[in-house]
Write a structure and sequence with these properties.
The protein has about 600 residues and is an alpha/beta fold. It contains 15 helices and 27 strands. Strands 1-4-3-2-5-6-7 form a 7-stranded mixed sheet, with helices on both faces. A 6-stranded mixed sheet has the order 16-25-24-18-22-21, covered by helices on one side. A 6-stranded antiparallel sheet has the order 17-27-26-23-19-20. Helix 5 runs parallel beside helix 7 and helix 11 runs parallel beside helix 13. The longest helix has 21 residues.
Amino acid sequence: MFRTPAASADRWVVVDVETSGLKAHRDRVLSVAAITLDDDGRVGQELSTLIDPGCDPGPVHIHGLTRERLRGAPRFDEVAPHLMTLLAGRTMVAHNASFDHGFLHREHLRAKVTMPTEHRLCTLALSRRLQPDLENHTLSTLARRWKIRQSRAHDAYDDARVLAQIFTRSARLARSLDLPLPVVACTERMTVYPDSIPRTPCPWRNPGPLDPTVGLVQGMRVVISGDTRVPRLRLAEQLTAAGLDVMNSVSRYTSVVVCSDPSSDSVKVRRAREHGLQVVSEQRILNLVRTIRPGTPKAERTPAVVVAPKPTPIVGPWANRRVLVMGGTHGEAVLMRSRLVQLGARPAVNLHASVSAVLILDGGDGDPRMPRVVERGLTVLAADDVDRALNLDVPAAAPLTPREAETTDAPQLSRGAVIDLEASTTAFTIDASWNASGPTLPVDVVAFLLTRDDVVSEDEDFVFYNAPATSDGAVALTVDGDREQGVRLDLALVPDDIERIVVAAAVDGENTFGDVGAVSLSVAGPERSIATAVLDAATTERTLLLTEVYRRGTGWRLRAIGQGYDDGLGALVVRYGVEVDDSSVEAGCTGVTTAG
């Protein structure tokens, strides 16, 4: 469907794609819809079409697009010219925009045309910035919140139609709060591992480097470098079937490197030589596999004996209220936020939709957001109100009682607080956000997958903007707002040799987290919030450990950290054992690139 009414001043284009899978470099777009809008939500041009990708359509049970339905549809290169006219000069809007943009970017590359999109806006990031009182931020939940009828979920046109209305109303609410929209530049960051070998759990312990006099032992870590006579993935499958642990990059844990030309000067071969490892030919490794020795099984995990401490529910006169602190020095704001938590309140870092009160410290009455506070009729507090409430025995005397409190079971974690994750909690997100009203600062959220030795055992286990996901999908960057970033974890996919996952943030250049201000954390599963925290003690630090998820017996725990370091991301990644090019270990986070 192509519809082009009279030209309008529309500067947004709402986009939705249905795909054959989740990885843009491997999977294909099956359908695409695009709707242009002006600032008032009036529709300009529309496009909606199925696309024949020439491959298996993947999860038909989700999108309903069978081979039969797609047969006869245009190819993407036939759709691209009209799609480009809708994208050009407009900001692309999508729910989880990095996903849609990544797929369209790849399809444009295949069609040998340049995708004209320069900026995008993620409505997931926008919803998290607005903080409506919702159990989650899915498209269907937002549709219900805004009373928008959703006819056919996972239909590209219907999803785009619904999203256009959600975006229009959300943008209107953001304007009423003086919250800028989370528009980001579309500098496409290609994954470092486009042809990575999927990680397969190995049941054997790693016996260490290959000793030519002994031969291969099951559990050895093998890395393949360069072209191979047997297709790389098939060779990896053969080695895995023999009991070897095939990885994507060379590290101190690698046992042997396979290269068709052992005298090669590739990065992997050079790194193997630096670690004193054997480099063998493809034929040599296949010969060695024939006489591979039995390995030592990995020990099974046993349930933890010690019961994790559960955070004490904070019940106070201001239970679950959202309170924004404005004004004061950094130290004064930190102190008052801690006192708000004692009262059961939840400190906010932005003037969002769920804020019910504002605590004014010295200079706060001159904050540019003050007119909106008055306009919305929010309760205005002073430091004396907080101090007085802490000494009251009767909650009804607290100044916030006239407003109905929110209801939430998610605990508010202080620094160092630990919670046990329920056994059913495997997939969830950890989202960080910070002040949306101040200057835009270059902050990046990253994740480290650490072994028992507390180091990253291969490059792929460092997830950052240039390598946004592990090949197995266990950890991936998600929300890409300019003041919101997140990490998605699927604990069911985490390799069994990974003991801990650390989520951190780094600010580039000479800026510090004192400039960034308080960082709000939200941990949420598909249906509900799991925990929240506000980390606000950082001052001179340029890197900040936000949270960690770690094993305890057969289960997992989550801890709020809030520990910072004055050095940059380059030093932090080296501290966790990531090997980087010497030239890339710079003070700023934009200089870090893996050498694998």
